[in-house]
Amino acid sequence: MPDSTPDSTPASTPPLTPPLDLAADIVTLTAAICDIASVSGDEATLADAVEAALRTGTALQVERHGNVVVARTDLGRAERVLLAGHLDTVPLTDPPNLPTRLDGDQLWGRGTVDMKGGVAVQLRLAATVAQPRRDVTYVFYDNEEVESSKNGLGHLARSHPHLLAADFAVLLEPTNAQVEGGCKGTLRVEVEVPGKAAHSGRPWAGDNAVHKTGALLTKLAEHQARVVDVDGLTYHEGLSAVGIRGGTAGNVIPDRCVLTVNYRFAPDRSEQEALAFVRDFFAGYPVTVTDSAPGARPGLDRQAARDFIRDLDVPVTAKEGWTDVARFAQFGVPAVNFGPGDPMLAHKEDERVPITQLRDAEAALLRWLG
Amino acid sequence: MPDSTPDSTPASTPPLTPPLDLAADIVTLTAAICDIASVSGDEATLADAVEAALRTGTALQVERHGNVVVARTDLGRAERVLLAGHLDTVPLTDPPNLPTRLDGDQLWGRGTVDMKGGVAVQLRLAATVAQPRRDVTYVFYDNEEVESSKNGLGHLARSHPHLLAADFAVLLEPTNAQVEGGCKGTLRVEVEVPGKAAHSGRPWAGDNAVHKTGALLTKLAEHQARVVDVDGLTYHEGLSAVGIRGGTAGNVIPDRCVLTVNYRFAPDRSEQEALAFVRDFFAGYPVTVTDSAPGARPGLDRQAARDFIRDLDVPVTAKEGWTDVARFAQFGVPAVNFGPGDPMLAHKEDERVPITQLRDAEAALLRWLG
User: Fold this and answer.
1) Does B7 reside within a domain?
2) Where do the coiled-coil regions begin and end (chains A, B) (predicted)?
3) Is the ipTM value over 0.85, yes or no?
4) What is the model's pTM?
């Protein structure tokens, strides 16, 4: 179906790469997508190929915004679910870990894990599920592996928020084919411990800021982080010093020690609540926020999510890191991570995915949507 | 008396600056010396002037080694004492705090405190005490205000150690005209606390090196430093963190924290004993020495020192910082600091000395030597 939005790229531009064949099996399609290199900032060719394949191979409504491609059903279903994946990868290795290589039961190469296997699953579903039980929105976006300000999903959320409306979202990041629900929030602060400088030959004339920081470090070491159940999943919080600096010279009592602390908080807390907790923890010392991002509830109490868990029949755990699912949470859309590939192999030289995970992920999502 | 050592500079070189008049009063002489700028590394002109003045204005044996000038009596006395002072200053201010300016009862300008007042006192004594009760060696040296490897006294100790032989030494550094005996030693070490890196979203998978350092900081904060009597003076030790660093990224549990510690130890301990104490204090953690210098006993039990204290009749305290007196201690020569000027004004923009301190210091040392 032709797209009518004014800022879409004309589909008539002939692609320089072979078209993606959505009828191919998941392993062949994953390899084809990986072989179109798309390091962050250089996703146009792959976005072109994805857009063209969706326009020619599906009946979905397709929109293109920059290098973000959105394809949707509009069947008037009671619920809408959203599947999202990023098109970009971290840089290739030297020598390049592309083109992909099938070795026994594993597909090797950049993007096989993070996360072109997931992109291939999305495209296979888009091509094969013409009448899903719920309306579906597929989102393919750019610049996930770089600074947050460039993130294509973030840009879309600001420019076309209605396209992200859904009752439940699945981000196809690698999770070793299990469901990781929601994500923890992250808050980074600097805590400044003041002191008074003096010559170290006369330390009693000063007030050693580094010594005073010892009490805060001990408090951190002894802190029992919260373990919180949210929507049926268990999140383990963490309150950690990730940096410390103090001292100006080898013979001067430090007049200042700066502790950098990262608080990873369960999604039952807002960013504001997280900051209040940290300020209270370090009461008496100036706290400066250097980074903050909200967590995301898994939303496993929603019907679409319950069906998702039931249909997939794979282990369900809490996501302990931070992912783009939090961007959905900001719109009130619960979200989970589910995708093929071992996240420990993401960004590695020996990035590779078991082909059974590709097939199983496709089959599992087909059960849910079909 | 002409000098016959081969490496002396011929006195026939005409000085470009007015000659120093050792018959002038102490304030006039101090001003004249200050007005020959001699920032570290640029002491030749002042060394020339000092050498010329000693050769023409005294009967002392004069030697010149680089920009170090040594003048000695050789009267066959039972004891020899040594007076030493450095010719260099820290850089001038902008605009320059020279020429000196007499304002009421204070002489203002670079070097008035650190330590051309002391140099002037040495020159006045050299010119006026022809028959001292003890043989006297006067040493004027360069590069005291810069890195230790350039220190003129250190160079002389290595090239002509016999010139530093004495029963007792006085370094005319500013002490507010009281006697500061000996000096503490200084040891600087890095203590490494190891940990294990992990993503800060899963801190339990790592071992936070910064958190573990808290126990060491608390131990430092609670440490009761020794207060030690040595040769009748009281030294206050100090064991201080002077720096701390740890952390690699905002989302990584630090696998390493490095604490820089400065131990200022009383002169009853050797460098080796000081290091053994520090290694024991931080038992279990690797300790790397980055700097070490011995302390110096005040030697107030020696006859020359006892007479010095009696004749001066000024307060006597322990030197809490480190000074060049330690260089004498390495030769077994006890040494004290005694000189005009408030050390808190050294290196400052408003460097200035009360002229009474100049006169009193000259008079006190005259009583002792005369």
Assistant:
1) no
2) none
3) no
4) 0.76
Q: Could you report the per-residue pLDDT of B237-272, keeping only the tens digit for each?
A: 999 999 999 998 888 899 999 999 999 999 999 999
**Per DSSP, what are the bridge partners of residue A185?**
A265
Give the CA dihedral A267, A273, A278, A282, nearest 10 degrees.
-160
A245 DSSP β-pair partners: A258, B245
Given an 8 Å threshold on Cβ–Cβ distance, is B201 in contact with A240?
Answer: no
Q: Is residue A7 part of a domain?
A: no
Q: How many Cβ atoms are within 10 Å of B359's Cβ, its own excluded?
A: 15
A175 touches chain B (CB under 8 A): no
**Euclidean distance between CA atoms A200 and A191, whole angstroms:** 24
- Asked about B63 being catalytic, the answer comes back as no
In a domain, residue A6? The reply is no
**Who among B186, B218, B242 is closest to A214 (CB)?**
B218
pLDDT of residue B24: 96
Same domain, A165 and A155: yes
Amino acid at residue number B325: V
Please give the backbone phi and psi of residue A308, each rounded to the nearest 5 degrees, phi first: -60, -50
Dihedral, CA atoms, A71, A73, A74, A80, nearest 10 degrees?
Answer: -100
- Answer yes or no: are the C-beta atoms of A169 and A113 closer than 8 Å: no
Which has more pLDDT, B329 or A64? A64
Backbone angles phi, psi at A321, to 5 degrees: -90, -170
* Tokens, residue A268: 């039952």
Verify that B117 and B101 share a domain, yes or no: yes
Domain that holds residue B219: 185-293
Match 């939005």 to its residue by tokens.
Answer: A5
Structure tokens at A91: 């840089």
Residues 6+ apart with CB under 8 A from A264: A184, A185, A186, A237, A238, A239, A240, A320, A322, B200, B201, B203
Cα separation, B228 vs B224, whole angstroms: 12
Amino acid at B152: G
**Would the pLDDT of B210 be above 70?**
yes
Write out the H or E segment, with its range, that includes residue B139: strand B135-141
Do A194 and A254 lie in one domain? The reply is: yes
